[in-house]
Amino acid sequence: MNIKRISLLLIVSIVVGVIPAEAIPLPSLQLGMEDIDDPGKVSSALQILFLLTILTLAPSILIMTTSFARIIIVLSFLRQAMGTQQTPPTQVLIGLGLFLTLFVMGPTWSEINQNALQPYLNEEISQMDALKLAEAPLKNFMLAQTREKDLSLFVNLGDGERGSDSEVEIQSLIPAFIISELKTAFQIGFLIYIPFLILDMVVASILLSMGMMMLPPVLISLPFKLMLFVMVDGWYLIVGSLIRSFGG
Q1: Dihedral angle over CA of 157, 159, 184, 100, nearest 10
Q2: Would you give the DSSP letter of residue 146?
Q3: Could you tell me if 180 and 145 are in contact, meaning their C-beta atoms sit under 8 angstroms apart?
Q4: Integer Cα distance of 121 and 22 in angstroms
Q5: Residues 113, 115, 118, 122: what is their CA dihedral angle, to the nearest 10 degrees?
Q6: pLDDT tens-digit profile of 119-144?
Q7: How far is CA 29 from CA 45, 119, 141, in A?
Q8: If you ran DSSP here, which 8-state letter would residue 83 be given?
Q9: Cβ-proximal residues to 225 (8 Å cutoff; 6+ apart), any chain
Q10: CB neighbours (10 Å) of residue 108?
Q11: Are the beta carbons of 137 and 115 closer than 8 angstroms?
């Protein structure tokens, strides 16, 4: 080991002696504030900052203002009711939820693109006008899925008065839409659980009557759950019911 270390040191010293040491340029970083005479530069910087903020919050906006929350919760309830642990994988459920969300939100996003995004890109309207025009279709979708009771709760908590649908503030509509989606998703999940729960109870009763108390009922009922789900074409029924629940 000592001979190897001495040889390594000799090689390093030879290389260092042959290759001249050169200074490696390092980039300099400066952080400060300067006076700007052109207000347009400040406006552009603020717009870029606003865009980066929106991109950071994009996943939350997708979950809270679209059909994604209801879809992914129902699919998660389905997997738990079947007792298949991590099958289908979470990535598969999220991917299916995203594509179903694209399908459900397609008309709304097409309207936003036609009325707000394209005119803004063509410099026909200002940024604020584009945001107002984009807000209208999204509000119409959320209002169609929000219960009147939930919406009145947040309107009253905000010391506001319940006027027409167009007068509802977006900060009151979004939380009302979220709790309405959660309630609807839990109702659908309860209906999904019922047939699988009945099958578990039947299998547990049969095993108890046969004296096989040490055998887990879930182990026996799982193949029957899968067979039942396939025989009734469960994915067709679940996805179809989910899409129809949005009025599509």
Answers
A1: -120
A2: S
A3: yes
A4: 50
A5: -170
A6: 878 878 887 788 888 888 888 888 88
A7: 19, 39, 47
A8: T
A9: 82, 83, 196, 199
A10: 19
A11: yes
- Does the pTM surpass 0.85? The reply is no
pLDDT tens for 209-227 read 777 777 677 777 888 888 8
**Contact residues for 127 (Cβ-Cβ < 8 A; gap 6+):** 47, 120
Task: At 204, list the tokens.
Answer: 């547990």
Token couple for 57: 């919050």
The Cα 241–Cα 78 span in angstroms is 13
**Would you say 170 and 136 are in contact if contact means Cβ atoms under 8 Å apart?**
no
Helix ranges (DSSP H) in the chain: 2-18, 39-56, 58-65, 68-82, 90-112, 118-121, 127-145, 148-157, 170-209, 217-231, 234-245
Helix axes 68-82, 217-231, angle to 10 degrees: 130
From the number of C-beta atoms within 10 Å of its C-beta (0-12, 13-18, 19+), residue 8 rates as: exposed
Cα separation, 146 vs 165, in Å, equals: 11
Q: How far apart are CA 244 and CA 246, in angstroms?
A: 5
Rounded Cα–Cα distance for residues 104 and 72 (Å): 13
Distance CA 75, CA 63 (A): 15
